[in-house]
Automatic annotation (TrEMBL):
This is Rossmann-like and DUF2520 domain-containing protein. SUPFAM superfamilies: 6-phosphogluconate dehydrogenase C-terminal domain-like, NAD(P)-binding Rossmann-fold domains. Residues 137-263 form the DUF2520 domain. Residues 2-119 form the Putative oxidoreductase/dehydrogenase Rossmann-like domain. InterPro entries: 6-PGluconate_DH-like_C_sf (IPR008927), DUF2520 (IPR018931), NAD(P)-bd_dom_sf (IPR036291), OxRdtase/DH_put_Rossmann_dom (IPR019665), TM1727-like_C_sf (IPR037108). Transmembrane segments: none annotated. It comes from Chitinibacter mangrovi.
Length: 286
């Protein structure tokens, strides 16, 4: 059975540690956090792992999960390297969505296999996270040996691992893709709801209209692909309707409509017979 040390006792870290412990393939050896109270609470919640008060008190382990804020990862790696805690051949990995394995360079220099490992999952509620994690896609990037070992780790806790490109900027591009999908969809939904209310639609009805259409659209993207799922006035080349939309939107919302409209014209491609007309309208300065 492989051993795991957890550094950082937040929601993600303690959720992953508990799933690893429950898998029967891994034993949580120890937990360290800057806050001893957080470490103690995590240990009680997980039901395993020795709680240590100092980083230097962590025992040897096969896997080291560094689950701390992005800005602290490099510092923790440097401190671990200075203390020579991570032995040659051990796997050290962090769970940042945007940062790559190079944050752990001091440990790699000492012979550890280093990687970044990011589950595309929200850990807002650890109890629910443990219950619903199965099937979650987890992005891996870094040393080939670490990627192989962490692919097995991912499968053991119910996730599905996939490898990112080793090209510079690939990890950031991955995180930007997730941010656009998760964050901008929320923003766009809010703008749609406000525009529906501008039409005099009651908020509860607006919610049903907008969210219902979003669900239908996501289903269409899933079954048809993004380009084929496009509907509406832009893909139809209906410049008159687009102009009417722009005329009633407040400036901030209109700016979003124009920017996304131009991207929609590009996505529509050959389905749009006269893209120049729509593009000119969308790019026009009032």
């Amino acid at each position: 059975m492989l051993t795991l040390n957890l550094i950082g006792a937040g929601r993600l870290g303690k959720s992953i540690a508990q799933m690893a412990q429950q898998s029967g393939r891994y034993r949580l050896a120890a937990i360290y956090s800057r806050s001893l109270a957080s470490s103690t609470a995590a240990g009680m919640w997980i039901g395993a792992g020795e709680v240590v008060a100092q980083l230097g008190d962590l025992p040897s382990a096969d896997l080291w999960l560094i689950s701390v804020p992005d800005g602290a990862i490099a510092g923790v790696a440097a401190e671990l390297a200075e203390l020579k805690l991570v032995k040659q051949g051990a796997v050290a990995f962090h769970a940042s969505g945007a940062l790559a394995a190079d944050q752990l360079a001091p440990l790699a220099a000492q012979g550890a296999y280093c990687a970044s490992w990011h589950p595309a999952f929200s850990f807002a509620d650890p109890t629910r996270a443990v219950q619903t994690f199965v099937g979650t896609l987890c992005a891996l990037e870094g040393d080939a040996k670490a990627v192989a070992i962490l692919s097995e780790f991912t499968a053991a806790i119910g996730g599905c691992a996939f490898a990112l490109s080793s090209e510079a900027g690939a990890k950031v591009a991955y995180h930007a893709a997730l941010s656009m999908a998760a964050n901008f969809l929320v923003t766009l939904s809010d703008l749609s709801l406000k525009t529906a209310e501008q039409a005099g639609i009651a908020p509860e009805i607006a919610q049903q209209l907008v969210l219902g259409l979003i669900r239908q659209t996501l289903n269409n993207i899933d079954s048809l692909g993004a380009a084929a799922a496009l509907t509406g006035p832009i893909v139809r080349g209906d410049a008159a309707t687009v102009a009417q939309h722009l005329a009633v939107l407040p400036p901030a919302t209109q700016a979003v409509y124009r920017a996304l409209g131009v991207a929609t014209v590009a996505l529509a491609g050959e389905r749009l017979s006269h893209p120049a007309t729509i593009n000119q309208l969308l790019r026009a300065k009032d």
